[in-house]
Amino acid sequence: MSRTYSAALPFVLAMTMALGPLSIDAYLPAFPSMAEALGTGIGEVSRSLSVYIFGLAVGQLVGGPLSDRIGRKRVMYAGLVIFIAACVGVSQAASLDSLLLFRALQAFGGGWVMVLVPALVRDQVQGREAAKLFSMIGLIMVLAPGIAPSIGSALLAVGGWHVIFWFLAIYALCLIPIQTIFVLRHSQDGNANHHADTLLTRYRAVFSTRPALPFIALQAFGFSVMMLFITHASFIYQAHFGRSESVFSLLFGANIVIMLLVNLTNRALLNRFSSRQILITCLSVQFVGVLLLLLMTWTHASVWLFLPAMMITIGAQGGVVPNNQACFMEYFEHHGGTAASLLGACQFGIAGVLSALSTLLPETLGFVVASMFASSLVCMIVIIAALKPLPWQRRQVN
């Protein structure tokens, strides 16, 4: 049975979840200056992004089951402390190796923090109310990737790339009292009924829930489409299309505007359609957007024709993530932290591997768009093979 939750809950959880996109996107404009300071190339610095994504996956694999066993509070506090310490380490990095090391540690702590958000939602509500709460969280945190490059550009102008990571450390530090007051004081210290379960037992219980597994693939490859774009966004707009840092921030933020609109529309549609139906529709729209990107790339279209196709592709994420999370977490009344960790680990792990592999390809627009097409195609195959309801079918009220 769903429980009521305070009005502050979605805002606080959104601020917590925003730690991920802020850590990913805020330093994108600083790639050229970081490469110069560390004596390496932009491509080598971009590897730190893939390392971070992979580190998030590993952190979530550990943090989720740990929170089921010892409670959400301890894992949240420990994750924030690790993240803060790593941010300080990154700000002092003098070589590429030290940068990659501290980014991996930063991601590990961030993974502990981010994996708790879906688990905390599942602790509070379920069903359609859970989908609406996920959508509210998404509505707020969708602004983070849009403003993050602008924040990074401003901090870069004020004090260099080191300041960006000091900002992230302060942001994470502020989350500790906010979480304590509005979220964690209502959280249980552990699941008494399953306290003795081993890590293997918890993951076996999640993997044995076969109807939930297709949503893991949809989360991973749907997110990979956006992750591939983020990894190569600086190259696409600054190198390929020759735009400045300030224009890059605007072009990057245009995608977030569409994500915001899709998220707003999603909340209204949930009153009439199921999360599964909206999810299938948004993934189909994303696939159409990728096809348009292929066409724009093949015809050597200008950035102003390329941009709308990218906005369609990335904007669809505004309806993919909240609905997919709600569909998946609905299956797990118990082992919610473990289920969330598996979903998050696969999302960031697969996306991180794919984005890392994409950096080994020739850095051309054609290869970037082709990689995005391949990921979106996997989503369409999963929809056809594993998900039965069609988008135009009316939802059944439970």
UniProtKB/TrEMBL annotation:
It holds the Pfam family MFS_1. It comes from the Bacteria. The chain crosses the membrane at residues 47-63, 75-94, 100-121, 133-157, 163-184, 212-235, 247-266, 278-297, 303-321, 342-361, 367-387. It is found in: Cell inner membrane; Cell membrane. Keywords: Cell inner membrane, Cell membrane, Membrane, Transmembrane, Transmembrane helix, Transport. The keyword Ribonucleoprotein does not apply. Its main location: membrane. Residues 9-394 form the Major facilitator superfamily (MFS) profile domain. It is a multi-pass membrane protein. Belongs to the major facilitator superfamily. Bcr/CmlA family. NCBIfam families: efflux_Bcr_CflA. This is Bcr/CflA family efflux transporter.
